[in-house]
Amino acid sequence: MDDPAPVTATKTDHGVADLGTLTVVIPVLDAAATLAPVLAVLRALRIIVVDGGSQDATVQIAEAAGATVVQSARGRGSQLAYGATAAPSEWLMFLHGDTRLGAGWREEVGRFIADPAHRSKAAVFRFRLDATGFWPALIGFGVTLRNRVLSLPYGDQGLIIHRSLYDSVGGYRTLPLMEDVDIVRRIGRAGLVHLQTTAVTSAARYRRGGYLRRPMRNLVCLALYFLGADMSLIRRIYGP
Q: What is the mean pLDDT of residues 166-193?
């Protein structure tokens, strides 16, 4: 693939950058059930959907929405890394295929990337599940607590980062798991900005995996990762 010409940022009169300077990278695998509303919120933006071998209508949905679809080795870390190489812009925004941005995101992201000081920082969104009740609220509280205490946002909070910072920290690594934790650790607490806009993630995986069992499993995997456990062990605990 030839290196694309970079797209550079310009400011509007209100201190909000033109989002034409931004490329959205979305790794997907059989995401037909969630992808369409994610893409609808991103209309008129440059979007690269990195498919890891979907067997459903994911690719057709992405193409119908005007996204560029590229194929990559399966694995979110590999797909994110590949998508970044295909993006021509100086600003990158990484999102999951089941995470839809809430109201006001364009203005807030525009203000973030318009500030030259933010070229050395990355931004993440607030987390919320698209479900109501005790367990979704408890999951949301736990994510907020993890962000405040450990400054460890996961990939379902998105990541907005300037190309220079992305390259300087080494970008996404082709890890089978923990690619999101890995990159935010290299960015560091001081380099993260927590935006007010909410990223709404599908609760389907929690319904399948259990609102209690899934977070506990993730916590065990995170602890093993920090203890330096072999990634193959963590992968077996995490499951398919």
A: 96
